[in-house]
Amino acid sequence: MNHPSHLQVTAPASPLPWWPQSTPVGGSLERVIEAAQAQDRCALAAFLPVCFPDRITGMDALHLLAQSADVVELGVPYAGGVLDGPVIQEASRTALAAGFEMKDLFADARELSASSSAALLVMSYWQPVHAYGPQKFAEQAADAGIAGVLIPDLPFEEAGPWRVAAQNTGVAVIPLVSPRTRPDRLAAIVAAATGMVYAPATDGVTGNAQPISPQLPSFVAQLRNLTSLPVAAGIGISTPAQARHAAAWADLVVVGSAVIRRMQANPRAQVAAAAAAAREFAAALRPAAQPETD
Q: Residue 47's pLDDT is what?
């Protein structure tokens, strides 16, 4: 991917891909990002809570998201997500009301991994993982074909047992990192990461309407100096144009609320709405994509 010449983005001097090809965890994640890089584009991840709006409709939507996205990020519905904006909060409540159970996460992942080439990630808050049992969660995630797990509210200093459980089963431990983190602590967090690191594209909770953060280019450059792992950008990427903007620096862009909003706006055609949103975001990341007006 060609970074804009007016931005000083520091990256390792070795040819793409920038991360070790022998990485023992998150292999399917590595392969799809590498394949996107070979096409001179940023990879796309699409997020959807499991069982939203219900088990059958949600599964159909996930299948279609996987046709356009390189990565499908399965959300574990949770009522108290501190990072979640109103759109994902409502979607999580809907999924919980529809009867979500943790077994649904692993069943959906198994079905997707058997039928799709997309890499599978999970985003969950710590309480559901802790209640289920971290070792059991990691083992079942690996068995279901899940490449990595992001737990945004689990502090690095308290994550040791989870890191051990995940890494022993081959599941990548993906941190959400912040440009406000002390440099020494940031270096420690990134050094313990596997699979990729996740940087906020905007300032705020998911689904916010803010522009891409002006700190994103320099923060990604800082991360590139700390790790050869891919860097994802997400949170608040609301339009294809914003996704293309973030793709100038990231290896993977993550969209979630924008897909859910489209589904909520089309209650009689939610699956088709999700598929259309994923196609539009994927098209924006192709090298031949032309500027759009938002």
A: 98
Question: Quick one: residue 261, left, alpha or beta (phi over 0 = left, psi -120 to 50 = alpha)?
Answer: alpha
- Integer-rounded Cα Rg, in Å, for the chain is 17
Residue 60: active-site member: no
Catalytic residue among 70, 73, 104, 251: 73
pLDDT over threshold 50, residue 30:
yes
Judged by DSSP in three states, 116 sits in: coil
Is 139 part of the annotated catalytic residue set?
no
Neighbour tally for 100: CB within 10 Å: 24
Enumerate the H helices of the chain as residue ranges.
Answer: 27-38, 55-68, 86-97, 102-115, 126-132, 134-143, 160-169, 183-191, 216-226, 240-246, 257-265, 270-284
DSSP 176: B
Q: How confident is the model at residue 207 (pLDDT cuts 50, 70, 90)?
A: low
- Of 30, 70, 84, 104, the active-site residue reads 84
